Amino acid sequence: MNFNRKINRQQTQSVKYDFIETLNKPEDTIPMWVADMDFSAPPQVIKALVERAEHGVFGYSEIDERYCQAVNNWFQTHFNWQIDPDTLVTTPGIVYAINTAIRALTKKGDAILIQEPVYNPFKCAIENNKRQTIVNPLVFKENRYHIDFDDFENKIKSENVVAFILCTPHNPVGRVWQEEELKRIKEICQRYDVLILSDEIHCDFVYPSNEHRMFETVNPDYAHRTITMTSPSKTFNLAGLQGSNIIIPDQALRSAFKKEMEKQGSAHLNAMSITATIAAYEEGAPWLEDLLKYLQENIALTQRFLEKELPEIQLIPPEGTYLLWLDFKGLGLSDQEISERLEKRCRIWLNAGSQYGVGGEGHWRLNVATTRANLKEALRRLKKIR
């Protein structure tokens, strides 16, 4: 795969590219925000989709044994995690699944805990469904983020928390939680009977010296109170096909989740999503291996650039994901000043850290899943931030 090949994404209804002017950004803005990649999906996936399209019939579709086997083989091979096909529920996406789980398995007014700064749709899902958000802020020390476990347990106990949304690997701070950290999370949640919604969509993006553990495999005795949310969408750049695999071992929770889906009239993945998932998980491993090397080079390039050209901006070393968490506080500027300079001087579009909640102020999220040339131009423009 030639990840340096520039692909024109304009006029493809791309959220990232086709709505720049609609959202009042300068026409020549380089978008480095929304978490999709500028790379073509694996050739095997494209081939499978073309063959499916040429078949010409797009009737109702449903997952089958081959689909379940492809999903299971991927996670067994890469994470030593065996998935019982009876526990697998497909949804149009993980954000959809989180909203569905909240409605199905908690009540209005219930307290749900998140660890900010964190992916902002978590909080939206809680509040849009009239639940209460409880925040266990991550703590930054020794150049990485940590969980304040005393606060974690105190908040669960004092606020009567009924559910916890875990982000692993963590978006946007890039942490890959270690096994001991996951065990402590599970022990505390088990002590207070807290339901765990584990978003593991970035599980395939982990860099050397780090290892992702599927949360369900850590002390499996609490699997009956764990819902694991996965998808090939980030890994293989398939987000627009809208397909996710939600693993719910407990039959009662699974039935309630499916019942809530039925209320919304959602029942089947689209035919292309099924085709792409099978092809990606059956044949996409070599492509992913090359992609991870390319992303590591992009991360290293960004690190070198900042150290040499913009030492006021600190890159928090990423352990996973392709989303870099940058600390701009060394510039001595307000978030509003930074936002205006990024838009008008630099003409690059990053995600403001403030949208991710407590601790996000003064930070910005940079998506490096783009061509080397595009990244270099964006970094060149970033120098104008001063």
Layout of secondary structure:
Blueprint: E1 30-31, H1 43-55, H2 65-79, E2 88-91, H3 94-105, E3 111-114, H4 121-128, E4 132-135, E5 139-141, E6 144-146, H5 149-158, E7 161-167, H6 179-191, E8 195-199, E9 226-230, H7 233-236, E10 244-247, H8 251-263, H9 271-283, H10 285-309, E11 314-316, E12 323-327, H11 335-346, E13 348-349, E14 351-352, E15 363-367, H12 372-382
Parallel strand pairs: 1-13, 3-4, 3-7, 7-8, 8-9
Antiparallel strand pairs: 2-10, 5-6, 9-10, 11-12, 12-15, 14-15
Helix pairs in contact: 1-9, 2-9, 3-4, 3-8, 5-6, 10-12
Structure description:
The chain folds into 2 domains: 30-41 and 285-385, Aspartate Aminotransferase, domain 1, CATH 3.90.1150.10; 46-283, Aspartate Aminotransferase, domain 2, CATH 3.40.640. A 7-stranded mixed beta sheet has the order 2-10-9-8-7-3-4, sandwiched between helices. The protein has helices at residues 43-55, 65-79, 94-105, 121-128, 149-158, 179-191, 233-236, 251-263, 271-283, 285-309, 335-346, 372-382; strands at 30-31, 88-91, 111-114, 132-135, 139-141, 144-146, 161-167, 195-199, 226-230, 244-247, 314-316, 323-327, 348-349, 351-352, 363-367. The longest helix has 25 residues, at 285-309. By secondary structure, it is an alpha/beta fold. It has 12 helices and 15 strands. The mean pLDDT is 97. A hairpin with a 2-residue loop joins strand 5 and strand 6. Helix content is 39%, strand content 15%. Helix 1 packs antiparallel against helix 9 (271-283), helix 3 (94-105) runs parallel beside helix 4 and helix 10 runs parallel beside helix 12.
